[in-house]
Amino acid sequence: MKKTILYLTSLIVLSGCSFFQENSPAQSSKQSSEIQAVSSEASQERTNESQVDQTNEGPVFQEEELSSTNLPQSSLDESVNYQELRDAVNQYYDQEVDSEVKELNQEPIAEDDLENLQYVFDNNDQYKDLGVQVDQVKIPLGGTDNYVVRLIVADSYAATEAKVEGADILLLNESFAQTAPDRLVLLEYFDQEAGTIIPMHLSTSNQTIFYNQVEEDKLNQ
Q1: What are the Cα distances from residue 91, in Å, to 86, 209, 210?
Q2: Residue 78: which of 196, 218, 174 has the closest Cα?
Q3: How far apart are CA 41 and CA 191, in angstroms?
Q4: How far apart are CA 206 and CA 94, in angstroms?
Q5: What is the per-residue pLDDT across 10-67, written as a single tens digit (0 to 9) for each?
Q6: Residue 149 and residue 105: Cα distance in Å, rounded?
Q7: Secondary structure letter of residue 51 according to DSSP
Q8: Which residues contact 119 (CB under 8 A, 6 or more apart)?
Q9: Nearest to residue 140, comparing CAs of 193, 77, 178, 186?
């Protein structure tokens, strides 16, 4: 199934680097604690595993948190070479993304916009059971730091889709509406069993920089 983003009245087909076949502080804190607790248990189980290849060190897109969250870092299947993925993403970003979009994403996101977005996810009936956490991270793209909205859903992609069909597109569109259509958004899902965060989308409303086709394929099997 080809994913699409509906932004306002536009129908925009996702294309890009598909590399694979008033805020509620108490609620947000609870969601973060639940993720961190499961992550800690999974980390203990992995202490005796062999060292990961150096090309796969760090979070997938080398994203840098701008606030302390103690969340697990993002990861993908062991067969994926992160550096090759980063090179492909950077090449696409350099060649296909307009300079105006690049300039916008070099500016930090207003905290009010992030708080408003978190409020919507915490209180809107369509989203409030998904446990979405909102923050901003810095991601190096095109040789510069870019400020990106990060959405972390408190469950796997499959489990979230079982609750709300097309939740990923709804979450992306809400983020574009609350920030800007050309603001980069990184949408990730928390794999409770593995204790890791799995990237699903890195996109603006018009362009997908990265899409995790593997997760959708698993859902459709």
Answers
A1: 8, 10, 12
A2: 196
A3: 13
A4: 15
A5: 222 334 555 443 333 334 444 444 444 444 454 444 443 444 455 788 899 999 998 8
A6: 10
A7: P
A8: 22, 23, 24
A9: 186
Question: Residue 158, Cα to own-chain centre: how many angstroms?
Answer: 15
Query: pTM of the full predicted structure?
Result: 0.79
The Cα–Cα gap between 219 and 213 comes to: 10
Return the SS3 of 193: coil
Return the structure tokens found at 67. 């606030």
Q: Give the pair of three-digit tokens for residue 212.
A: 């995790």
Q: Is the pLDDT assigned to residue 98 strictly greater than 50?
A: yes
Q: What's 180's DSSP letter?
A: -
Q: Which amino acid is at 138?
A: K
Q: Report the 10 Å Cβ neighbour count for 111.
A: 9
Whole-angstrom CA distances from 149 to 52, 71, 80, 165, 192 are: 28, 16, 24, 22, 22
